[in-house]
């Protein structure tokens, strides 16, 4: 059947695009600037070249309207704080002295000044810098970045659409500044913030902007009537401005729900909605609301969060329905393409059959353009593309690689007993204390130690054939010996081998499990200049042979102190991968959990008494709507227990989580039944310790006292002060002392000094404890 052409030609656009460049040029330039090897002018030049290249690629692909303002040196929420003048008092001198250095001081801190807190951007692995606001916050408009980038694109002959974080989402993402009452609600500042947004919009209009995109993803979450009223007020005021561009309010990551009616009635000129699986229900809700008469609809029908090719026929059916619900329908991805790698064509080593199934940012852009062409001109205009798409989808459905009968039989045989430890925690903990003989406030680290230039060079030399496997392994052994020697000399109680053989905490395991595919160039921004290469989950998962046992056992042979076995948990293995979309996530999680269970049992059999199974993504993957939480947490916690429950009572199971809001999953943390949990707490000033205490969490916990995402070295006094706060919530017999996260991204000098201060703080606090406790 041939689709009828749209009344007005549909156009292709995107909400945002990867920032790093084909070879991570931005990362290299920014880190070079931090080290003094790249000047500020050279950094700005690199940034301008990357923006220019992105706009040119989009335009050449057929994108009608290119986004501007989505580019960032570090984080777009931090850019918004600069745009509205929400600079914390402690950073103002640095910003006044040098705007660029002050910007990075807010992101990373300095030796004297702490950075902004960092947490996850909704349910993604992208981290944003949390705005700090209070009743005394004064907003001031600074539209320089947004106007300059708009003018850059305009001068190059493009049709730019500036992209801003919307005012409601910005305030809902913010937190009370230090010293402000914890119950302060940043949304109460809305009336103070809106005139600043009005000024920025006026500046963009004066520069020639026809449309401005205001991102409001917070509205896809559960929102109170007061919050929905605030959104209505915000867009009634901004939409009622006389000196403004047209406003496109964008939502993504889910179903708008109650907020759809609010935005549909607002005096704005268009809405952008997610019509993929994550936004299921938006189409029916839009139809029930009577559509968007007189408005533009940007339809996100291409999944911007995953890397599988689009189903053209399914998307065109949705688009055809949407034509009757708005005056004009354009085609886009479901969210910014920031969350996928740049170009699948750069992956030379992927099986050609599998490569047919993959779409990174450039391929998704081409899909958007094809769908816009089909919508505008009818399906006869894209006959060849439709045929190729059908063949590619069919080749994946029929591929033997996606199914392993032995794996499916094993998961089908799982019983409830497989997910339960043989003894309850209260009995296990006594056995573990007797077996391990640790002091009060035991010290440890999260797992990784600095990945030095020498280690990266050794890996590159191995890949290039400049050294053989034996030479590489000797280098790894040397590093493990050095890491263990340092920890013993520093006085750390539970050691780690430092993970010198590992590239990334997910990729390392994915490369050793069947069913996973690793990329060479599939970089995605996690935070700042930290990029990861999420592996691709293409088929059923199994573990052909042990993955970590050899190196952990080697490390344990060098010391009498316990050495932790280090694994990545099943939820994080999924969350930080591009998962298959042809079966429920819970089923995939069980497969990964069984593979990890084999590894945990093998570690124990080789003498490992402490095993850490990291789940930093447990909170991140929590669905955005409360109604969906229970089903997710059921399979997520089950998969962790399945991986860890097969050990003896005296084997201590640890887990780790970082940079998220934990208050609404404390029960799930309890349900993991881990013996010890370590969590981020330094930037949030021990908030998580208070949350655990309020819940009555009965197990041991290590709220971090060293923020590893900043280059600053915490003093002994600073770490001790945080420990004292921790002891207000967690008794000494259950409190551990550790950094917030792994040390992979830090240098050795700051790592040594910070950990020595951490151990000194633990000793200082031990000496302060009552004699009976100590």
TrEMBL record:
User: Where does this protein hold 5-methyltetrahydropteroyltri-L-glutamate?
Assistant: 24-27, 120, 576, 620
Q: Which InterPro entries match?
A: Cbl-indep_Met_Synth_N, Cobalamin-indep_Met_synthase, Met_Synth_C/arc, UROD/MetE-like_sf
Provide the reaction this enzyme catalyses: 5-methyltetrahydropteroyltri-L-glutamate + L-homocysteine = tetrahydropteroyltri-L-glutamate + L-methionine
What EC number(s) are associated with this protein in UniProt? Answer: 2.1.1.14
Limits of the Cobalamin-independent methionine synthase MetE N-terminal domain: 13-322
Q: Which UniProt keywords apply?
A: Amino-acid biosynthesis, Metal-binding, Methionine biosynthesis, Methyltransferase, Repeat, Transferase, Zinc
Tell me which species this is from: Streptomyces filamentosus (Streptomyces roseosporus)
- UniProt-listed HAMAP family: Meth_synth (MF_00172)
Lineage of the native species?
Answer: Bacteria, Bacillati, Actinomycetota, Actinomycetes, Kitasatosporales
Q: Where does L-methionine bind?
A: 446-448, 499, 614
Amino acids binding L-homocysteine: 446-448, 499, 614
Q: What domain of life is recorded for the organism? A: Bacteria
Q: Which residues form the Cobalamin-independent methionine synthase MetE C-terminal/archaeal domain?
A: 441-763
**What does this gene product do?**
Catalyzes the transfer of a methyl group from 5-methyltetrahydrofolate to homocysteine resulting in methionine formation.
Pathway(s) it belongs to: Amino-acid biosynthesis; L-methionine biosynthesis via de novo pathway; L-methionine from L-homocysteine (MetE route): step 1/1
- Indicate the family of this protein: Belongs to the vitamin-B12 independent methionine synthase family.
Instruction: State the active site.
Output: 709
Among the GO biological process terms of this entry, one is: methylation
Cofactor(s) needed, names only, are: Zn(2+)
Gene coding for it = metE
As one GO molecular function, the record gives:
5-methyltetrahydropteroyltriglutamate-homocysteine S-methyltransferase activity
Q: Where does Zn(2+) bind?
A: 656, 658, 680, 741
Asked whether the keyword Amino-acid biosynthesis is assigned, the reply is yes
| EC class of the enzyme, as a word | transferase
How many cofactors are bound and how?
Answer: Binds 1 zinc ion per subunit.
Protein name, entry field: 5-methyltetrahydropteroyltriglutamate--homocysteine methyltransferase
């Amino acid at each position: 059947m041939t689709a009828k052409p749209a009344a007005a030609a549909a156009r292709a656009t995107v909400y945002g695009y990867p920032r790093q460049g084909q070879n991570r040029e931005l990362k290299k330039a920014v880190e070079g600037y931090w080290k003094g090897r790249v000047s500020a002018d050279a950094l700005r030049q690199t940034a301008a070249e990357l923006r220019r290249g992105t706009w040119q690629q989009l335009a050449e692909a057929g994108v009608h309207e290119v986004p501007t303002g989505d580019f960032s040196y570090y984080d777009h929420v931090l850019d918004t704080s600069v745009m509205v003048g929400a600079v914390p008092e402690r950073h103002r001198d640095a910003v006044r002295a040098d705007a660029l250095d002050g910007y990075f001081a807010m992101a990373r801190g300095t030796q004297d000044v702490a950075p902004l807190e960092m947490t996850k951007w909704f349910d993604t692995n992208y981290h944003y810098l949390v705005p700090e606001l209070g009743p005394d916050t004064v907003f001031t408009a600074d539209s320089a970045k947004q106007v300059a980038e708009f003018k850059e694109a305009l001068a190059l002959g493009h049709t730019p659409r500036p992209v801003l974080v919307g005012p409601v989402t910005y305030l809902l993402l913010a937190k009370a500044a230090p010293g402000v009452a914890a119950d302060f609600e940043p949304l109460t500042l809305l009336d103070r913030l809106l005139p600043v947004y009005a000024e920025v919009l006026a500046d963009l209009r004066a520069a020639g902007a026809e449309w401005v995109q205001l991102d409001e993803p917070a509205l896809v979450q559960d929102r109170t009537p007061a919050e929905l009223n605030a959104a209505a007020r915000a867009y009634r005021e901004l939409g009622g401005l006389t000196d403004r561009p047209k406003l496109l309010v964008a939502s993504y990551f889910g179903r708008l729900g109650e907020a759809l009616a609010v935005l549909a009635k607002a005096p704005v000129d268009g809405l952008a909605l997610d019509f993929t699986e994550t936004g299921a229900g938006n189409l029916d809700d839009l139809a029930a609301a009577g559509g968007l008469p007189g408005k533009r609809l940007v339809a996100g029908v291409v999944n911007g969060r995953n890397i599988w090719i689009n189903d053209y026929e399914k998307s065109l059916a949705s688009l055809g329905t949407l034509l009757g619900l708005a005056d004009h329908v354009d085609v886009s991805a479901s969210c910014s393409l920031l969350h996928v790698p740049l170009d699948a064509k750069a992956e030379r080593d992927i099986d050609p059959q599998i490569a047919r199934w993959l779409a990174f940012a450039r391929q998704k852009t081409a899909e958007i353009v094809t769908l816009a062409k089909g919508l505008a001109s009818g399906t006869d205009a894209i006959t060849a593309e439709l045929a190729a798409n059908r063949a590619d989808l069919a080749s994946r459905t029929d591929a033997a690689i996606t199914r392993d009968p032995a794996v499916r039989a094993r998961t089908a045989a799982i019983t409830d007993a497989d997910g339960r430890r043989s003894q309850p925690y209260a009995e296990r903990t006594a056995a573990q204390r007797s077996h391990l003989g640790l002091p009060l406030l035991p010290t440890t680290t999260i797992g990784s130690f600095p990945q030095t230039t020498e280690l990266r060079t050794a890996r590159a030399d191995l890949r290039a054939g400049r050294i053989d496997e034996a030479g590489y392994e000797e280098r790894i052994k040397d590093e493990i010996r050095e890491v263990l020697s340092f920890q013993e000399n520093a006085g750390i109680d539970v050691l780690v081998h430092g993970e010198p053989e590992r590239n990334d905490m997910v990729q390392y395991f994915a490369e050793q499990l069947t069913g996973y595919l690793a990329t060479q160039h599939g970089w995605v921004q996690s935070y700042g200049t930290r990029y990861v290469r999420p592996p691709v989950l293409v088929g059923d998962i199994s573990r052909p042979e042990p993955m970590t046992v050899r190196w952990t056992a080697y490390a344990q042979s060098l010391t009498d102190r316990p050495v932790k076995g280090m694994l990545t948990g099943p939820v994080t293995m999924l969350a930080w991968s591009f998962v298959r979309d042809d079966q429920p996530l819970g089923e995939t999680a069980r497969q990964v959990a069984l593979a990890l269970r084999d590894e945990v049992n093998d570690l124990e059999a080789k003498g490992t008494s402490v095993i850490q199974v990291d789940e930093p993504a447990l909170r991140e993957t929590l669905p955005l709507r409360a109604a969906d939480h229970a089903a997710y947490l059921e399979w997520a916690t089950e998969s962790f227990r399945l991986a860890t429950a097969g050990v003896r009572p005296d084997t201590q199971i640890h887990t780790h989580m970082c940079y998220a809001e934990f208050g609404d999953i404390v029960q799930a943390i309890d349900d993991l039944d881990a013996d010890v949990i370590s969590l981020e707490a330094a930037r949030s000033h021990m908030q998580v310790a208070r949350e655990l205490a309020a819940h009555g969490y009965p197990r041991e916990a290590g709220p971090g006292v060293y923020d590893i995402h900043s280059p600053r070295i915490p003093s002994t006094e600073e770490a001790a002060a945080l420990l004292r706060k921790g002891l207000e919530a967690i008794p000494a017999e259950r409190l551990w002392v550790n950094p917030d996260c792994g040390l992979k991204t830090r240098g050795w000098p700051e790592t040594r000094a910070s950990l020595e201060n951490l151990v000194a703080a633990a000793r200082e606090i031990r000496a302060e404890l009552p004699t009976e406790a100590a």
